[in-house]
Amino acid sequence: MAGGGLAPAKAGGVEFEAKITPIVILSCIMAATGGLMFGYDVGVSGGVTSMPDFLEKFFPEVYGKTQDPKLNSNYCKYDNQNLQMFTSSLYLAGLVATFFASWTTRNLGRKPTMLIAGFFFLVGVVINAAAQDLAMLIIGRVLLGCGVGFANQAVPLFLSEIAPTRIRGGLNILFQLNVTIGILFANLVNYGTAKIKGGWGWRLSLGLAGFPALLLTAGALLVLETPNSLIERGRLDEGKTVLRKIRGTDNIEPEFLELVEASRVAKEVKHPFRNLLKRRNWPQLAITIALQIFQQFTGINAIMFYAPVLFDTVGFGSDAALYSAVIIGAVNVLSTCVSIYSVDKVGRRMLLLEAGVQMFFSQVVIAIILGIKVKDDSNDLHRGFAVLVVLMVCTFVSAFAWSWGPLGWLIPSETFPLETRSAGQSVTVCVNLIFTFVMAQSFLSMLCTLKFGIFLFFSSWVFIMSIFVVFLLPETKNIPIEEMTERVWKKHWFWKRFMDDNEEVAATGANGDHSPKKGHSNGLDPASQL
């Protein structure tokens, strides 16, 4: 059928015995602090770029615009390429770091990669907090971006490999939950430091990023390496010991043998990126790329990066703008909790479609209010309309937080077959960071050009992506990862035309004479991502 085309299927796959052990929960919580650091970096940049002392020191041109009473252009006063580079340099550095992180996660392990991320975060924080000029500020952001690249590669992979199947979706979303908590923490810090007299409040905002950086580093030291990584690197006895600890049972032999076999099969694939371009992998590749592009073109990161600047632009005033950003951050956290509870119950498609309606409506309402009430030279937005703008932004953020935010990462992690899963995760991270960079670097210029129309621009993209979900995104809820091809792609009204069994047989013969194995429902294999 058009709405995903997934016919009902019998439950299948091997269900391994696994308890939800304290060590698994603790390890996931500690590892997910990588998301806390990422979220703090996203949230703090918008706050400090609305602080006059920060602008005066590093961006005097922008500071002059904000203080010039003759400048009748609220929408354009923050339009500055250097200011946008301060925000976007983090994501460009993260993109480059991802390629190195892909190698370290496979050859050194998930735990060392998280430690490397923590090191980059700590050094970047110190340089940012001590910055004396723009170059030093950008260098610090670049190092933080390297941390983001390593953390985004290793942490979701770690969570996926250590989680039991029945709570895989919820534990994966822990990473996104920590991102939202990091944004809220940054907004609270910015709200407090903006009141500090003496011109050093922004240093405290940037320096307090050391707290989540220390948490990630300490967490990486304390957690266990995943059994998948140990087995992949030939440390079979250690892998079995860790598997017994995290599953809370001695009956781990079936899952252990499955992991060993998965490792053997994965090693026979010599060119995973080349395999990724084969026709039978086009559906997964297309959906992964589309989801990452769509996630950014909802406009969420533009709002999160620049929420204080945006509210200041429409007439809230600096203090009220930061206060509104704190409210939005809290809504973001609470709504992500909704996703953790519902993603394995109502399914991925339902959350995405409901959120599409909610985001489209809220953005159109915001555009209408700003278009009618906020002129380019207006100084204030009526209190009632200001409250309505904040309410609509919160409506938008809540919808994103239980849909496109976490599911933009979760769905790609569930769809790629074993032999291309590692390459698929690299594509996911790279495309996401490319378009995050594009949005961060262009948003203030777009705001200057489109004014209130920027929300109509984003709402049109929300409409397009909702149509995409209706017709082209199948449901993956409660389907073992290794059974996706048979139970999802070969039964989808559109994507089944790409599932060529003859090509699959030929490819299997080329990589070695082995038959496809039954999937293990955990999706726990050395190449699994997210």
UniProtKB/TrEMBL annotation:
Alphabetical list of InterPro entries matching this protein: MFS_dom, MFS_STP/MST-like_plant, MFS_sugar_transport-like, MFS_trans_sf, STP/PLT_plant, Sugar/inositol_transpt, Sugar_transporter_CS
Region described as Disordered: spans on this chain: 508-530
Protein name as it appears in the record: Sugar transport protein 13-like
Organism listed in the record: Populus euphratica
PANTHER family linked: IP12678P (PTHR23500:SF357), SOLUTE CARRIER FAMILY 2, FACILITATED GLUCOSE TRANSPORTER (PTHR23500)
SUPFAM superfamilies documented for this protein: MFS general substrate transporter
Keywords: Membrane, Sugar transport, Symport, Transmembrane, Transmembrane helix, Transport
Family listed: Belongs to the major facilitator superfamily. Sugar transporter (TC 2.A.1.1) family.
Membrane topology of this protein: Multi-pass membrane protein
Localization (cell): Membrane
Main location: membrane
Domain Major facilitator superfamily (MFS) profile: from-to ranges: 27-477
Keyword Ribonucleoprotein: no
